[in-house]
Design a protein that fits this description.
5 helices, three-stranded antiparallel sheet, 131 residues, alpha+beta
Amino acid sequence: MRPCDLEKIREIVFHDLPPGQAEHALVLLCGLEGLVATVGSDGSRLLVRYHICEYTLEGLETALASQGFHLDNSLMSKLKRALAYFSESVQRSNVAADEPDIKSQQAFMKVYERHLHGDRDDTPEEWRDYK
């Protein structure tokens, strides 16, 4: 995963009523370190830029909803939101995944090779081709 894939630019779309929600949300989000927010051209959208290890769209929208903001609940917004939530959660889990421990895998391989587990043929070589 390239480092630039970890920086996200997302849209938070607010419901039309009550008006001015994007501006009020901008005031709240501007205090967060590592997050850049601007109001969209139509005034009902907020463009946010953040690093995925610090913030997620789901976390931001949940925080805004708990503060009384009303998000757009159209089908398209719900689909975009669900896709962003899923992709960000997968990326966060992939970034947090540790590298495989090669030494412990090699130790298990040696134990497996030495263990008698029934896949060895004790038949003498000359008897194997007997028909």
